């Protein structure tokens, strides 16, 4: 019996968390897992918080990942990493796009964006894999491909062959954006293979 695992993809509206979860779900289903996914949207049109739960195993009854249960959290933004870090299990990994996207209270001046988000998370002993996914996405050809860079990083940590991920990209990404996204995926995967011990 294969252990049930949980992955959370967190970010703000417009960052492509849903496509990332679709690619991931496609990979897991292709490997014969029972997969359950659930998406929770904040005010996504205004850059609100968006979280997707992905659970997989031999038999999964609920898509929700509880506190301290996530094996991986893919955080597309620093503050979202801080917001959801309590869901990461001991020994889990936080894959972080080390970017700051100011929420509405910061934009309006009602609050200040914390300056030491990553340091505070690190001080809790969290295993952080931080990258500048935006720069890699731009190198691939579009800032909108941050989500696929992050999936590329995850792919280097997961126990599935690269061709499984490539097949999922082909099935989930529109043909006119496929080459760009394959490049974004490759840059993320290469970054992880070079920088993760």
Task: Give a description of the structure.
With 197 residues, the protein is an alpha/beta fold. α1 (17-30) packs parallel to α6 and α6 packs across α8. It has helices at 17-30, 78-84, 104-107, 117-122, 133-140, 146-157, 162-172, 175-195, and strands at residues 5-12, 34-41, 49-57, 70-75, 88-97, 127-131. A six-stranded mixed sheet has the order 2-3-1-4-5-6, sandwiched between helices. The longest helix has 21 residues, at 175-195. It has one domain (5-106, 115-195): 3-Layer(aba) Sandwich (Pyruvate-ferredoxin Oxidoreductase, domain 3), CATH 3.40.920.10.
Topology:
Elements (H helix, E strand, L loop, with lengths): L4 E8 L4 H14 L3 E8 L7 E9 L12 E6 L2 H7 L3 E10 L6 H4 L9 H6 L4 E5 L1 H8 L5 H12 L4 H11 L2 H21 L2
Parallel strand pairs: 1-4, 4-5, 5-6
Antiparallel strand pairs: 1-3, 2-3
Helix pairs in contact: 1-6, 1-7, 5-6, 5-8, 6-8
